[in-house]
Amino acid sequence: MKKSWVLFVASRYILKGRANSSVWSVLGIAFGVFALIVIIAVMNGFQLGFIESILEISSYHLRIESFQPEKYGELQNIMLSIPGVRAVLPFKEFQALARGRRTNQQAVMIRGLDKDTLETDTVMGKRLDFQRGSFDISDKGNVLLGSELAARLSLGIGDEVTIFSITGILSAENDGELDNFTVTGIFRTGYYEYDCSWAFINIESASFLLNESDLKIGIKLFNRFHDRVVLEQAKKKLSGYEGIKLSSWRDYNRSFFGALRTEKLFMFILVGLIFIVVGLNIFQGQRRSVLQRSEEIGLLRAVGGAEKQVRFVFVFDGGIIGLTGSILGLVFGLLVSLNIQEFFTIIESIINTFIRFINIAASFFGAGTAGKFAVFSPTVFYIKEIPSRVLPHEVVIIFMFGFLSALFAAWIASRKITKIQPAEVLRNE
Questions:
Q1: Which residues contact 132 (CB under 8 A, 6 or more apart)?
Q2: Nearest partner of 216 among 94, 53, 98, judged by Cα
Q3: Above 70 in pLDDT, residue 260?
Q4: For residue 150, what are the domain limits?
Q5: Full-model pTM
């Protein structure tokens, strides 16, 4: 008996046998895939934005500490000789108090950088969005402030800010002059902690406010996930330097990144419950279909259809439902995720139009009016626009999860066929 009959019978069942149930199952799978792709894409946008700001601006991919400053040149050459290293940057950092106009004061993290930092590390430049001014710390008296910090201190370009080291230890070479800086740039990273409490100055200026031995080295890699490999090679090449300390971005941000990973996992699970509900619906539908078609199944078995072939009719039915729903959800999910701003703009327009009609109706009765609706209002969320980041491997996992949930439900339901005996069915008929 030719196997082509299996596909023919399966297509007849899905198109005519229970079309309404199949449509709702397809829509259920499609909605689950669509929702999960969009939600995870937006979550990726937020999380990766935070992670990249932390790694590119603050912690770097690798760090070298506790070394003699005069050894910096040697260490730099050694690290640049390791494959995968993109940039090696010296820096110093310390806590301080900044005082602006109107005697406003704010605790800040001061980081001393080389004046050519952005030429060496172009990726950092992409994370610093200068609202006013530019990355100009060529002069020892220049300072760059986060946008929120500048607002709190009531400072603009060209204004002076006084910086006091919290330790209160100033070098005698300072002579009380280098604690006054001129604002030459106001930046925004999109990460509130940095924008409200970070400032950059020339590394030579930082040397007057810190002990010379506090020099550190930040290392950027072409791929931050290769940090363990580079770290092992660095440890071997730097084994002759006593007391030197090497660390990875995973060490500095372990708890924060772990919390983000757990949050994403639980979101995956919660939204993934949609597939379980739809899978149960497919299971019940296929199980009912097997019971209703017991006579047809018995006839197919009697004319030579193998048990596996008959089971495949119903498994194929579930597979078509899962594949169709997953493809629909994938297409619309990617369409929305890659155009997330336009999507939410349309949603806001529809809701605000509805609110406008309600306000007009309410005005006739002297009732209060509702305000304008925004999905992500800048007054509530510290964002200019809704971020979205689609990761291909996650899209593949979501697609396969939607498809396989329907396929598995149909396979479980089709086991009922093994209990149907052709002789008993034909005898009853």
A1: 156, 157, 185, 186
A2: 94
A3: yes
A4: 67-243
A5: 0.75
